[in-house]
Design brief:
The structure is a homodimer. The first copy, chain A, has helices at about 5-15, 20-35, 35-55, 90-95, 125-130, 145-160, 185-190, and strands spanning about 55, 65, 80-85, 105, 135-140, 165-170. Chain A is α/β, with parallel strands linked by helices. The longest helix of chain A has 17 residues, at about 35-55. Chains A and B meet through helix 1, helix 2, helix 3, strand 2 and helix 4 of A and helix 1, helix 2, helix 3, strand 2 and helix 4 of B.
Amino acid sequence: MAYPKSFEELMECFKMLPGIGNKGAERMAYHVLEMDQSQVKRFSDALIDFKKNIHHCKICGHICEGDTCDICSDPSRDKSMICVVESPKDVFAMEKLKEYHGLYHVLGGTISIMDGKTADDLNIDSLFNRIDDMTKEVIIATNPTREGETTALYLAKLLDAKGVNVSRIANGLPVNSSLDYADDLTLLRSFEGRKKI
Amino acid sequence: MAYPKSFEELMECFKMLPGIGNKGAERMAYHVLEMDQSQVKRFSDALIDFKKNIHHCKICGHICEGDTCDICSDPSRDKSMICVVESPKDVFAMEKLKEYHGLYHVLGGTISIMDGKTADDLNIDSLFNRIDDMTKEVIIATNPTREGETTALYLAKLLDAKGVNVSRIANGLPVNSSLDYADDLTLLRSFEGRKKI
């Protein structure tokens, strides 16, 4: 016995979402069955509105509702620094700190042989187009994963050739962690990156 | 820094789904950002179509696209037996066996003091309206949980007073399980329910 067609179709749609398998999609569809008509309408509209309104900022690639994001269009931001991150999520993480007041550049991923992603698939050209005499420093804040490091090295080489000051966020032990739980590479990087106190 | 309005709204909608918290909703919204326009449209339409087309069967409470479900409108089903279950999911589970050829009745939950659900909130009146001279047996197949058992006992009493043959699905050890992993109550029920071989 199969599910009715509209039920199957909604399950298929839920299965497009990350981390949702057959059982999860089934559970969600049953939940929608118990939801009010108005709630389902709200959900359906939210999807359409999201796709219509949310774009990538034309300058930095961050998400925004207009053409350019709040950060790029904020005249009070320090235009001499550009922090390069993998995804919009990272911009929100950095902004939470309220410590950095420069600009961002969102790559939209990393160079990854496994996923067949090359430098051409990333937002790199637009980064180089932005760099001008005002740019004093580019901080590469891709994740400290294999792909993030590869991308950082690739960018650093190109930026260096252009005579731009490039820095990379530090590796080391997380605050409040303990030495004997750290993996070897983290401990090594932490040791190598030691500073005079 | 806050997410754009349409982004927040979609996250709120995802959070209405069971098991989806802040992080999950965020991850899903980012995924929708990368989806094609046509895929998002499909998802949005699927929600509306689902709500428009999927109803509870007027006879048994199972889900269906028309007024009555495939089982109730199938003339080859054995009309002398009604299997009472908690939810449409249970009908699909039973049907997978291809062993039972009678009818179903979906209660839409169980009596649960914790959730403030009484017998009046369940599909019970319609069950009694269905029972006639043709009905030879009502099998109560609510889950073997505290709520399921309470509901089963409640129904059994009422059905018994009406002179209907009532049975309950068996408790015992799951096939391929081991005795020393079984909880006490399951083992006790399995022992009490022993049969001559």
